[in-house]
Amino acid sequence: MLSQRSEPLTRIQRARRSEILEAALEIFSQNGYRGASINKIAEAAQMSTPRLLYHFSDKEELYSELLSATLQLWLEPLEQIEETGDPVDEICIYIQRKLEMSRDHPRESRLFAGEVLVGIKRADTALFEPLRAVFDSKIALLEDWAAQGRITAQDPHHLLYSIWATTQHYADFEAQIEMLSPQKMAKLFEGAEAHLVPMYRKLLTPT
Asked: pTM of the predicted model, to two decimals?
């Protein structure tokens, strides 16, 4: 059950909640929802379990708040695709932003990828309505661009899914990449951008 707080949080309370959420992100991204526990999160936050439960009522509340913040972070690059821009450029810039998210927020990416299906069932499904709304609007935009001949005809759903798969892979399977291609790790994301952006630009540019 989510805790009900009628009074605004103090600065110290906000700082403590931030510390707890940071620890929870580490534990959830490593262990998933089922493998995480309040005790593990409290230990990572360097506080007692009762002290943690003063700020968050249970693991469910922690997970839901993290998932909500992660979803918004995940949505931002998609929302920034501009209708007024050059379509191919806008999509390539989106790919760059997705790679930046994988580089800068790998734990959030792994949390979202590993737990989103379970999270949809567990959390309030209204949490995910912004994703559907933004996704649907960008699908319509991609369809319009294709109909106008501004990008090559593509199934817009599979186009976005393939972009997500190729960009998020670098965060979600970082350990695999490090094992298979350790020589690539120093400039992993520069190399990924150098590979992916021209590939999608060639795919999308009308001939």
From this structure: 0.81
